[in-house]
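Lecture notes, part 5. Sequence design as translation. It can be helpful to think of inverse folding as translation between two languages: the language of shapes and the language of residues. The source text, in structure tokens, appears below.
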């Protein structure tokens, strides 16, 4: 294995181990020594890949989001042909977020707090993180335009405006989910589904 491939493999291992431990123990209770040990690397080596534990937490979330973009398929399946447009968009969003739904709410809250603090001193990281939001909006625009081509939406449907509103609704439901203790994953998903029905009529 050449040097570049080995470094990439090590980085992927660190992220996978960190994601598992963060979810099991929470951010504060997890140590970088523990991550390094379970990733089978030296403690100092960890910091050749990540500047801090906070940077590692942020990358745990962003890495998978970016990796999955190449696997997106906007073409409608045979089953999709029988579905309404709002249901197709809901299933698209569900597939996009389902891998995160098993994570603890506390882990998401930790990440958001750390990200806000980190961004104050690292403008480039902030731009990168915000860029993920723009990527999701772009994905929605592409999907909605495809639904127009498939006659699931009218030709005058404004995909750009709708995508921004859908994203805002998703963000609202997510914040409510994180900070309302009694709100379950099912409540979160139902909220998204209901708002999509309202937006896409």
């Amino acid at each position: 294995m050449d040097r570049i491939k080995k470094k990439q493999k090590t980085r992927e291992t660190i992220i996978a181990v960190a994601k598992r431990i963060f979810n099991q123990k929470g951010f504060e209770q997890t140590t970088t020594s523990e991550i390094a040990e379970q990733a089978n690397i030296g403690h100092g080596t960890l910091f050749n890949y990540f500047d801090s534990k906070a940077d590692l937490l942020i990358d745990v979330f962003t890495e998978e989001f970016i990796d999955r973009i190449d696997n997106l398929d906007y073409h409608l399946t045979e089953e999709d042909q029988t579905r309404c447009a709002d249901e197709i968009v809901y299933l698209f969003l569900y597939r996009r977020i389902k891998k995160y739904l098993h994570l603890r709410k506390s882990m998401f809250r930790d990440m958001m707090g750390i990200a806000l603090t980190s961004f104050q001193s690292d403008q480039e990281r902030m731009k990168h993180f915000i860029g993920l939001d723009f990527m999701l909006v772009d994905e929605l625009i592409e999907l909605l335009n495809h639904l127009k081509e498939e006659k699931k939406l009218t030709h005058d449907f404004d995909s750009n405006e709708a995508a921004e509103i859908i994203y805002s609704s998703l963000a609202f439901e997510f914040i409510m989910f994180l900070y309302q203790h009694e709100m379950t994953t099912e409540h979160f998903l139902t909220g998204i589904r209901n708002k999509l029905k309202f937006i896409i009529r």
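The translated text above is only one of many valid answers, since several sequences can fold into similar shapes. Residues 119 and 127 are 9 Å apart (CA to CA).
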